[in-house]
Amino acid sequence: QGLDTILQNLKLCFSEFDYCKIKQISELLFKWNEPLNESTAKHVQEFYKLDEDIIPELRFYRHYAKLNFVIDDNCINFVSLGCLFIQHGLHSNIPCLSKLLYIALSWPITSASTENSFSTLPRLKTYLCNTLGQEKLTGPALMAVEQELVNKLMEPERLNEIVEKFISQMKEI
């Protein structure tokens, strides 16, 4: 499946508005071998209220990706792109694009069918309840109660550290 086919399938899972945002960010981050659509870049920059002009970052990123990323275009996704950002140190060099990647990684994932649309959150809750002991469920409960602390941890500089630690732990598994 090509990226366009995957995006068409995602359209079934998201509202039209969400799909439009996913498609725009996907085109900016995944299609580095194609000409840059500056109007899409400006639209995304304005919508997400990014502080700086993302076009120079996109040009640098696309040039760097062409030279350094060796992947199958059909297998790229936001998680694998996040790993590449961390491996190549791009998350600190192109902060606006890193923010877009964090936004994309935070989108809720849904599974659509003709009869029902199931959110990931209830399935995750069921999975956690069925597979983890009570002590493991206290973490998500504490996060819900301690929202102020969680918000502090979600600041970009702390989030970078958390993402790097998570990726390094995932590599060890």
Automatic annotation (TrEMBL):
Residues 62-149 form the HAT C-terminal dimerisation domain. It comes from Macaca mulatta (Rhesus macaque). The gene is ZMYM1. GO terms for molecular function: protein dimerization activity. This is Zinc finger MYM-type protein 1. InterPro entries: HATC_C_dom, IFN-induced_PKR_regulator.
